[in-house]
Design a protein that fits this description.
Elements: E1 8-11, E2 74-77, E3 91-93, E4 104-107, H1 114-120, E5 126-129, H2 139-146, E6 160-161, H3 168-172, E7 176-178, H4 182-196, E8 205-211, H5 226-229, E9 234-235, H6 244-255, E10 261-267, E11 274-281, H7 288-298, E12 305-307, E13 325-331, E14 337-344, H8 348-363
């Protein structure tokens, strides 16, 4: 086995994709979807289950065109981080990888290192990039927020933003998908449908989000030490978190004009999990029930997005290790305003799980393939 670094590549066997493709119900969160390992199949004793209840039973839609005798060969670039590690087969350096032996690639490299590598990959490969390098359509905006030049601007027009439930057909037809960030996933899933429907105002959107420490990555940082994190919470990136332009891009697209948000992220003393609380102004004559009913209708046929029963608040422990997003809407004490709460696992729906969901679409596999039972790390 070659010495492996963040630029390493893991090659998965062809059978990886199809071992757990099958029906499930939306009422059983057969969690532990992918954690950080993306495509590693169930390894038995290391698997942990997280089962909770949803409002309705619903069988997942299968892909009628998918032949389970077919297999897909997948490579993972950067498998030493939380979004790409654990239980991996033999690994090789990128320079030694034979990309002719794979059909698709997950790129889990740090921000700013992905663009040149993806640009050099064979053009026939399907690519899902988990970094932020292709999320922002405007390369000048990328340079402003990520403090460096975009090194593959010729690829940016090709990149499709992979918020699966809201961009499904675009993802299905894509070669290069920019996987959304964790905060943007938890925020855009409820807000974009409400903005598109004209049910909430685009102004005065206030968002407070809480994330587990794994959201900051696996590299050694003083701010992430146990003694710095335990027994307390603290905000960070106030007014300048790098996910702000990504969120504003999606919300602006929904209404056709610029949206500016007030966003404060907080680091929580837990390894994984994310909860976003959004404070919005309802349009004149719109009730909280109207907001909730619209989300129920919008996501009624979705496997992984669940609007909870009225007055039930989402909990991060109910989505731990799963690819689910739990949502609900509450009336604010301030007249005309509403509170929307979402919960996801930042490493799964906020990263690796959504990446696999996207690649399933790109390869013509059932959308929940590989997302039913998986080990968790951490």
């Amino acid at each position: 086995m070659a010495t492996f670094s963040q630029a390493g590549m893991a090659l998965f066997p062809r059978s990886t994709f199809i071992e757990d493709c099958g029906a499930s119900t939306k009422s059983s969160f057969l969690g532990n979807a992918v954690g950080s390992e993306l495509l590693v199949v169930n390894r038995g004793a290391r698997t942990r289950m997280a089962v909770t209840s949803a409002p309705k039973n619903r069988e997942i839609t299968k892909s009628s065109d998918f032949d389970q005798s077919e297999t897909v060969r997948v490579g993972v670039l950067g498998a030493s981080g939380y979004t790409g590690s654990e239980d991996l087969p033999n690994m090789v350096a990128v320079k030694d990888a034979d990309f002719l032996n794979v059909d698709a690639v997950f790129c889990c490299l740090p921000h700013g290192t992905t663009q040149e590598i993806i640009a050099a990959l064979p053009k026939n490969l399907k690519v899902v990039d988990l970094s932020a390098d292709f999320r922002l359509r405007n390369t000048a905006t990328y340079e402003e927020w990520y403090n460096g030049p975009h090194r593959a601007p010729e690829l940016q027009p090709e990149a499709v933003y992979g918020l699966t439930e809201l961009c499904r057909e675009e993802v299905r037809a894509a070669r290069l998908v920019a996987n959304p960030g964790c905060y943007p996933t938890s925020i855009q899933l409820p807000l974009i449908p409400l903005l598109k429907a004209g049910l909430i105002e685009k102004d005065n959107i206030i968002i407070n989000s809480n994330s587990g420490v794994s959201g900051a990555g696996r590299s050694a940082k003083e701010a992430n030490l146990y003694t710095e994190i335990c027994e307390g919470i603290h905000p960070y990136g106030i007014t300048k978190h790098r996910h702000v332009p990504e969120i504003e891009q999606g919300l602006s697209d929904a209404v056709g004009s610029d949206v500016t948000i007030s966003f404060t992220p907080n680091l929580m003393p837990m390894s994984r999990g994310m909860m976003s609380t959004m404070f919005v102004q309802r349009k004149q004559g719109v009730t909280v029930d109207d907001l909730r009913n619209h989300l129920v209708e919008r996501f009624s046929d979705e496997e992984f997005v669940v609007v909870l029963e009225k007055d039930i608040a989402p909990h991060t422990r109910h989505v731990r290790g799963s690819n689910y997003c739990l949502l609900n809407v509450f009336e604010d004490r301030i007249p005309g305003r509403a509170i929307i709460i979402s919960a996801i696992d930042n490493l799964v729906k906020g990263a690796s799980g959504q990446a696999l969901q996207n690649l399933n679409l790109m390869m013509g596999c059932p959308e929940n393939c590989g997302l039913l039972q998986q080990p968790m790390f951490p």
